[in-house]
Specification:
heterodimer; A: 210 residues; Ribosomal Protein L9, domain 1; Methane Monooxygenase Hydroxylase, Chain G, domain 1; 2 domains; three-stranded antiparallel sheet; B: mainly alpha; two-stranded antiparallel sheet; 8 helices; 5 strands; 10% strand; flat
Chain lengths: 210, 221
């Protein structure tokens, strides 16, 4: 329709993915006394100095920006844990390690706003970047093996950002396979054999794609 | 997509849904994500939207009161942030639906089942949209074409069906997460069976899980 040809209509932007990640819970240690907050999105607090409590990331960042709390980095964000994850990621070609669905966004937000609360921040940061690179690379190589019609593809442990990046490509690739492999498109055996041999025979087609 | 939304669902069902998936904002976020990721327009979350609207209004009044009553400005600004986030979700949800309506207006106007998924206001919008578009095409192009090619939805007079209506591509693939264990179910148009464990992530043919998204078993992400 006129003016509405946007193919990305239903995709999430990076900002939107970050917005979703901001609702993940983190632990903070406030340094002020504040009554409980009864938000539309839930009740948090009351807050007492030096008493740790759970709040959504956006609230933690807002308080942190005003110097009202320290943020306790999540358990997976330690040098020890991340080193393990990185090694495991490197060891396996296919399997992805289990990390929080929003690990990219959470760590980004914490690096941006709470770097002084993260022990060994440089090390942690470079580890996360390495993990991200290894994983993206793995995603790319795994995509190369995508070569036939499939109705469902399990992508366990892929994170939100990773999903968001591969979605347009994988979605359309699978749709194309689906379309071209659809039996309705090959109604007439004669025509098929002389016009599109690669579709008529799965083995040949796969071979050609390698 | 928690509640069956709307007219069909009973109050008891709503309570249950609210209990298991915490807040309305959480439900709205789910509805928003589903709506953004689904190729077609989903059922309007009538009761949820009504509740959210009420809560937003209440919070607006509260914040106005706070500002007058000398409460700590920090607290007020935090309440404002929370409100802004909810409003963003709320508007974005409505907006994405309007975009879909604009995109598929002729499809909607020909299809009562799709219309039943819209809210009253959306139905009105869809109708006006289709009327305006029809009039516009009529005046600017169609009236100047040969008689055989003057229809808005048919390529020419010999077309038996309306073959110029953009329709949602149900054949597209979406990314989804199951909320609970889903026993082996058949995928649309194939012999394959698929099993999904809770929280398992999957890229899947939308048509195959369409009903399950509406029923709330599967979330799109």
């Amino acid at each position: 329709m006129a003016g509405q040809s946007d193919p990305q209509l239903s995709l999430f932007s990076a900002e939107e993915v970050e917005f979703i990640a901001e609702d993940e819970m983190v632990e903070i240690v406030p340094n002020l006394r504040m009554d409980a907050l009864n938000f539309v999105c839930g009740d948090f607090g009351p807050f007492f100095p030096q008493l740790a409590t759970q709040v959504p990331l956006w609230l933690a960042v807002a308080l942190k920006k005003r110097g009202k709390c320290t943020i306790r980095p999540p358990q997976w964000m330690t040098v020890e844990k991340l080193t393990q994850v990185l090694e495991a990621e490197r060891d396996s070609q296919r399997v992805f390690e289990q990390l929080p669905f929003h690990y990219v966004e959470i760590s980004r937000l914490l690096f941006d706003h709470a770097r002084d609360d993260i022990p060994d921040v440089y090390m942690v940061r470079s580890l996360i970047e390495d993990i991200r690179d290894v994983r993206f690379h793995k995603v790319e190589t795994n995509l190369e093996s995508l070569n036939e019609r499939a109705f469902a593809l399990k992508i366990n442990n892929l994170s939100a950002m990773e999903v968001n990046i591969v979605r347009p490509f994988v979605g359309r690739a699978l749709q194309a396979f689906y379309k071209h492999d659809s039996p309705d498109l090959i109604p007439d055996q004669d025509r098929v054999s002389d016009r599109r041999p690669q579709v008529a025979n799965n083995a040949t087609r796969r071979h050609l794609r390698r | 997509m928690a509640s069956e939304a709307g007219e069909g669902s009973t109050a008891g069902m709503d309570d249950y849904e609210t209990l298991i998936s915490t807040t309305d904002v959480e439900l709205l976020k789910k509805a928003w994500r589903n709506e953004k990721a689904a190729p077609e327009i989903l059922r309007f979350e009538t009761s949820l939207i009504q509740r959210i609207r009420g809560q937003i209004q209440l919070m607006e009044e509260n914040i106005e009161e706070f500002a007058g009553s000398g409460i700590d400005p920090l607290t007020v600004s935090l309440y404002q942030m929370d409100l802004d986030r909810t409003q963003y979700l709320f508007r974005s949800y409505l907006r994405i639906r309007l975009q879909k309506i604009e995109k598929y207006m002729f499809h909607i106007s020909k299809n009562p089942e799709v219309q039943s998924r819209l809210s009253e206001q959306e139905k009105g919008f869809a109708r006006r949209c289709a009327d305006d578009m029809e009039r516009h095409l009529e005046e600017s192009v169609l009236s100047k074409l040969p008689d055989n090619y003057q229809d808005t939805v048919k390529q020419s007079i010999i077309s038996e069906e309306s073959d110029m209506i953009p329709e949602p591509q149900l054949d597209s693939f979406v990314v989804c997460k199951s909320r609970r264990f889903l026993g082996p179910f058949q995928l649309d148009g194939s012999d394959e069976l698929l099993e999904m464990k809770p929280d398992e992530l999957c890229i899947i043919h939308y048509k195959s899980i369409r009903e399950r998204v509406q029923e709330g078993d599967i979330d799109l992400v």
